[in-house]
Amino acid sequence: MLLNVVDSQAVDDAIIYARWACHQIGDAVTVIEKTAPFMTQRLNEVEKRELIDMLGEAAAAVSPSQHYRQRVRKLMQRLGLQVT
Q: Are 2 and 11 in contact (CB under 8 A)?
């Protein structure tokens, strides 16, 4: 979990920024483009992987669409993670 890896203020800042970005922009691709640089600078490799894992856990409740998989792939690329 992110709280175990970084201080709570950094997590709060990231969540506040992400919420603001999501409210400003309705398109997931644009949100990824706007927030990825912020996350890339502040998250280490473990945290980036945990973020992707959390997305997978959230999507497990429903059958993920092709668009969802494309967006997760784009996020992984923007975070500098290897995409398989």
A: yes
